[in-house]
UniProtKB/TrEMBL annotation:
Residues 388-414 are annotated as: Disordered. SUPFAM superfamilies: FAD/NAD(P)-binding domain. It comes from freshwater metagenome. Gene3D superfamilies: FAD/NAD(P)-binding domain (3.50.50.60). Residues 397-414 have a biased composition (Low complexity). This is Unannotated protein.
Amino acid sequence: MAKIAVLGAGVAGLGVALAAGRAGHEVVLIERDDTPLAVSAAEAFDWDRQGAPQVRHSHAFLARLRNLLRDRYPDLLEALYAAGATPMDFISMLPEGMDRTPLPGDEDLVAIACRRTTFEWVLRKTILNEPSVRLVHGMGVTGLQTNPASDRTAVAQVTGLRLEDGTVVQADITVIAGGRRHDLPGLLSASGVVIRETIEDTGIVYFSRFFRLREGAEFPAQTGPIGGDLGYLKFGVFPGDNRSFSITLAAGVTDRELRRQLTDPDQFITIAAQIPATAAHVEVDRSQPITGVNVMAGLLNRRRGFLDESGEPLVLGLHAVGDAHTCTNPLYGRGCSLALVQAELFADSLKEHGLKHRDRAVAFEGATRDEITPWYRASVAQDRLNADSTTVQNGPADAATSTADAATSTADAATSTSGAREFMRDGLLPAMRTDPVVVRAFLRMFNLLEAPNSLMTNSDVVARVLTVFNDRENRPAEVSMGPDRASLLEAIS
Ligand SMILES: Cc1cc2nc3c(=O)[nH]c(=O)nc-3n(C[C@H](O)[C@H](O)[C@H](O)COP(=O)(O)OP(=O)(O)OC[C@H]3O[C@@H](n4cnc5c(N)ncnc54)[C@H](O)[C@@H]3O)c2cc1C
């Protein structure tokens, strides 16, 4: 059995501890945030998680993640439900008038509604029951312990983590799960290791506020998509656990005026009240805010490469998992699912190759390239299309459009951006409202159950969407998802 040292006890680090710990390996998690285990979900919501500030923002836990827990860790899924999380069954939310009788495969289309702090709290509580897992919190990692490369061709091997109190945690394998803000290249360069990095800004800033339903109040009936894109503003409502929910509004990084308004807690509610999908949620007799407005900028898509051009590891004995390896635009809600999937990939490569560091690294990076990287590419493609659309005021696209746009652009680089948007707006979106085959195909892709380009490689789905697209002149105009920017700013002034 291996001794594994993990930097960071966020979702990825905890996922590694779960997968490797249950396989009998000895795991030590080192977490800089001083967060003793909370006694309840309510207390976990107050955790001081400076190292992972996104816990103060809306999180969706997609069906891919829920199915992974259902199939490999049913006790964890049960514990989440016991803590107040709820299943989100997409089939029960199919558009009004569509047959909701379950079909084979529909049992997989269930996500988890839960606050991020509740998710992490349950994950941590469950993992700390594993006899082979230990967590040190309130202690930062400041360096790596390495056997330096012995000549020009050799590769440095990491043998543990150096902590801020000067102690060293020796390990057979070191896992970096420090999240999107941790400086992994800096940590490695001190040992002479240079990794490859690709970065593309998402172009947005997140504004989130949490609410709780008032006693006796219920969630409003859902009559349309709970997320969308007005071109200049993205919006989404995220059901949480224990009658909580959150609203996220995301503005362009360059839109100073809107960003200023969104930071104000009262204006945040006034703006949410202007958007049909969020308006009923913020009615004063339905809900009350339980936080101020949380803001997060610097949201990058980023991918790191740990193999050289000939496919050989740049460093041995070290892996990166979760956002430390690949992070994507939070808008698409994929990060936690991908982090847990990648933690499983790590455990699989460990099972197959044990302490053969070179073979394990090649296998892990290969599996990551197949399972994780396509979602990075989809995220970047989607963001580029969204950036093209931000000049369109009150654009009719919604989250579904943009996700499908990314699939299109990935699948068919020859399709022009505007043509793709038109096809999605006048084809895919209306088809999703009426065609159960198309909406299921979209939901499976959206929930990471199929590849990002799966819609465009499915000839049946393409034919159905094309039929709807060709009928576009005969349909009434799309219903507006909200005001244009000028009207919104006027309404809140
Ligand atoms: C605004 C926002 C909204 C998001 N919404 C969603 C969503 O809806 N659905 C979804 O699935 N994903 C979402 N994500 C992505 C998701 O939060 C991340 O993908 C996920 O947290 C990745 O987990 P991680 O463990 O890699 O990183 P993190 O969860 O960030 O954890 C990293 C940990 O490492 C610790 N650490 C850092 N440096 C050190 C050090 N030197 N020593 C010791 N410890 C250290 C930190 O304190 C932290 O606890 C969102 C992200 C953002 C930014």
